[in-house]
Automatic annotation (TrEMBL):
UniProt name for this protein: Mannitol-1-phosphate 5-dehydrogenase
Ranges where the Mannitol dehydrogenase C-terminal domain occurs: 248-398
Reaction(s) catalysed by this chain's protein: D-mannitol 1-phosphate + NAD(+) = beta-D-fructose 6-phosphate + NADH + H(+)
Highest taxon above the source species: Bacteria
InterPro entries: 6-PGluconate_DH-like_C_sf, 6PGD_dom2, Mannitol_DH, Mannitol_DH/Oxidoreductase, Mannitol_DH_C, Mannitol_DH_CS, Mannitol_DH_N, NAD(P)-bd_dom_sf
Record-linked PANTHER family: MANNITOL DEHYDROGENASE 2-RELATED, MANNITOL DEHYDROGENASE DSF1-RELATED
Organism: Dactylosporangium darangshiense
EC number, as in UniProt: 1.1.1.17
Pfam family, one: Mannitol_dh
Family classification: Belongs to the mannitol dehydrogenase family.
Keywords of this entry: NAD, Oxidoreductase
Amino acid sequence: MERLSRRTLDGLDHRPAIRPGDAGVGVVHLGLGAFHRAHQAVFTEDAIAKGGGDWAIAAVAPSSRSVLDPLIEQDLLYSVLTLDAERVRPRVLGVHAAALHAAGDPAGVEARLADPAVRVVTLTVTEKAYSRDSAIFRLLVRGLRARGGAPVALLSCDNLPSNGRRLRELVVAELGESIVESVGFPCSMVDRIVPASTEGTYAMAQAALGVVDRAAVAAEPFSQWVIEDDFPADRPAWELAGAIFTDDVASWERLKLRMLNGVHSALAYLGALAGAPTIDRALALPGMRAAMESFIRTDIAPTLRPPEGLSIQRYGESVLERFSNPALRHRTLQVAMDGTQKLPQRLLGTIADRRAAGATPRYAALVLAAWMRFVRGRADDGTPLPLDDPLADRLRAAPSLLELDAVFPPGFADDAELRAELDEWGKALQRHGVVGTLGALP
Ligand code: CS2
């Protein structure tokens, strides 16, 4: 069977919303993962289709070539398959105009970053890359230096609170305060569930398109982008593609990180311990939905201030609905990765806020106890569980996890009530497993 390419595109029922190659490059994207291909790329292609402009994307793969090579073989074309319980809706994207490899061609990436025609740099580099010594950050700094003051916005799309501020602090520490005169650091909240692609994804793409697509991604129907409007130069008309521009990104971020990502991580650890391979299967375990509803209602919701016009209760319901999508097959072990980088903003902030308000967040403590058990590396039935985390060695060596100050806020280790709660859950999980423990909940 033929491969997806510019040549085979004409014969397909599905075409990009813009003609590939027509728009010039205006965006550099760092982090060519599945999420970027199903999120920023889709918004940007739609923005060009509706609002015009030279906003094609030059995408940079930081280290692995596993996405880069198939994309290049396909003239940078790929499909996004939107999955729900009933059907697969394919869409072919053609918004990428270049694809580069940071590890193999740092000079090429630096030149792109320095190009004054590039007015926006978007980033999905994951939580752990927000550090002064990550390779991709070093390269970004070199590129900025080479711009000589040409205005640009660095738009972080990682799941971190105040992600733009975080990036700004890192960049200012390298290049000095004067850099902010030409560089904007808008905060943004991104949301779409996009599991890592598998052979199953490629098979689905082939069935839907009639050609082979080794760069396809599958995603849920829901997609959201909330952005602070702080762009010193121009930007794509993302609002025409459904993005929300607001001064209040912070309350959206907190809502999404604590509710969607917090419950996602809860399902990942509890589910992995119970042997559930995917998020929807974890949610379907006996007692799990009720436990997650209580977690949302009694622990998470009181720590949130809803963005204007939004009901927290309905948001919570929609999150559980999205997680029950059986077609996504999002692996619990994928979401469980990098726990030390994710839990502070997803769970520990909730616990800290509830403790400060004098409450005992029981369900949040259960989730933390589940992570602690997960870290020890055995599921309830004794099956080994992998620990994929940049701090894995320290986690394995720590006599008491709460003492790890790279992860836990000060005060957790001395909080006797929290410790007692964690102890109790730890023992329950040890004796009865996840399903037994959930079954005994009120
Ligand atoms: C997930 C997120 O892997 C994870 O940690 O919780 O990637 C999640 O799917 C996205 O943030 C949804 O927007």
